[in-house]
């Protein structure tokens, strides 16, 4: 294929895309002469060049389309049908061009159908096409001249070449035309666009100083460069950056300063060169949007609803590699918004909205990233339906979806095969796509977020890095090896010390960090890399890199943090690409190769949990341990170590002892605007009058009680082997925790000391409390939960096993609800419930709340099969009370 | 594909003398077709890649390029060399990537004809049989010719 033809193909493809977009604009605003002029000029250019290159089929089609557009210019009313026809013509042109590109020759075939339709339309008021544009004085004289097929004038040629230099806006060409005639023949013989066209443009400048003309002159100063050339340049600059980094590293180690100055200069120049080369890779995001107006227009017609596409910030630039990658996801999302987001016209009118929907596409820079928003003013996501669907499909449990925030729920639409659309349309609704969109965006280090409001619309926000080639990264060390963490994912760094304010705590082996009143799940980089195994449990020190991927926030524990460095991302070897933890590798300033950690991969690992990634034996141990393991708050009081289950504790406070007041011989303190009674945890404790006083606060509803202790010692997670001691009512018993004999405090003993009526609970007014059967094999848990349940207003009966529970149920007709532990020796809680359900009569219909140490998906399924009303984590006291309250509320609702 | 490579190599051996770079692993000597060898260097500063296939020892900066180093011993199912023992690496290219084959040492380049070539004995360890294309009878020792394509064909199948 000769250069001229190749040039023509690239040109034409670009022109046609522009015409697509312009036509849609034109349809909405038929009086906009500049748009029409632009379209007309582009089509005309294509036609002119076709004639010159001997492509009769393309030329005939373009000619017919041009005729119709000429009519528009003369004031012929623009109808949707005519625009559709022209768009169809453009599609045909593109198809022919594609064949031409593949085969090198114009494909055989007839376009008579389109040409006839176009001619028919342009001849409607019986004006011969050839005469059409003659009376268009406001437009360009040169363009107004009509050509017969096959005839090519010098002016056309000249124009064709001129356009080749700058596809977009050109001056109306009035002045340059006569001047242009001279250099044109030279240009016509040149095989590729020669600099010739620039001459007339430059000459034209003094004649026509309109801003448009200046812009055109600007555009003419661009040249086309092969993408490969740019890529090569980019690689070279990347290498240069690396070499410079290495040099700087060497210079840092040497005292000799004689070459510091030139090195600094080299450094600056390299930075500028890098910037410059990066710029050549930058393209306005509008290039990725070009097809969207057409897409929306076609959808609007197909779905018969009015949709307007507003595009803001189309000039925002980003790396062309990134641009290519987001093109399809963007198109998909816009289609989705048009199809699902925007309601039908009727629905909108009923909802009191404007009949036509709007999709707003906007882009802007934000730091090193570009944010793209796709917002519609449609119906918004049906979060209720999504919640239901998520549970139906088993992606999340009922309890999970209820706890989740709306935006978390909205993210379910990114799950594969997830569609809440009632009907499948040809456009979308098949549940494919959104997951692919998310994957594509995440694969380039981007994130996607949803904000939705029922009835008001949905906004998707995509954040992507400007470029993939050079990123800013934090260099960290774990187990003696350095890694690079992309800065884009890093929110902050927290120093961890075994005894400091920030330390890593463990919940059932899962490390967490308290960070500004929130728990942050932690994963150790060494652990992920399987570098060492002896880090579990012991005191942890180092740094936590707080990272965020999408909505997920987590901490990566590393041994050391060095500095941030601009790194050139090199792809992973094909042998290593399957490891999800790495995004690539790079060479640092000192010449060492380091791996680039992929925050997305880590986020997925964090979600899977540290326990499950451990060896199988550990999992078993953990499962066994979960049965009897408890997290306890250990404190000193009355000369001994005491402990209370952490789940019962609301807060731990250090108060100023001088603030303690005494009322009728009872100590009180103003706490959160209320008076809170204080009770010593041991008779031997003397409440201090100065300095600080440690308190363990328990609360229930709006009541709170402060347990006075000498000193808070620790939070311990351990197996509980409680030996019951009967002689003291303030203790459940004693146990060995971390090698120390520790008294386990019975909170139930203290609550009535603070409030006389606490044991009767807020429901004391009720004539008779409902009776609840608590089934748990562990005496400790029975003792632990009984006061809680009593406080919630229940009379509590207990049973230590399934058989005993059945016996109690048969014996006591007052029992109205069963709370059962699922993990019991001999017969499990499931067994018990199954027998209850089989039994028939009153017992089979009793509501059951199940307690479980580990709530897995299969437990949820089994529980549902047995009609268990709720599944609560074993230590979740408030969850249990809430579940009971819900049960209570249900019959009331039915009664009302 | 792998089989095709092997077949293609054998007639070539038969046609005329070919040059091989010899490498040492323990007591054994192997030959690599010289056209495939781009570099011979002492590997240094190897960055380990956690979770990588066992054969891969890590990544090396070879004059500004990141190359993937694989251990010939591990590839052949032999025990690792003693820590601190000398090693040499052979730079190989496959597709657009560069690999470094870490060996115990690199010997001379030998020009060998078809006359000393023997097919791979069938009683050889299956792992070796897949990697070898021929065995040459030399004075006092045997030279096993390795198929570089086969040598580098691992990982993907493990990952999948």
UniProtKB/TrEMBL annotation, chain B:
UniProt GO BP: chemotaxis; signal transduction
GO (cellular component) term, any one: cytosol
Spans traversing the lipid bilayer: none
Domain of life: Bacteria
Domain CheW-like: 17-157
Pfam family, one: CheW
InterPro entries: CheW, CheW-like_dom_sf, CheW-lke_dom
PANTHER family noted in UniProt: CHEMOTAXIS PROTEIN CHEW (PTHR22617:SF23), CHEMOTAXIS SENSOR HISTIDINE KINASE-RELATED (PTHR22617)
Protein name: Chemotaxis protein CheW
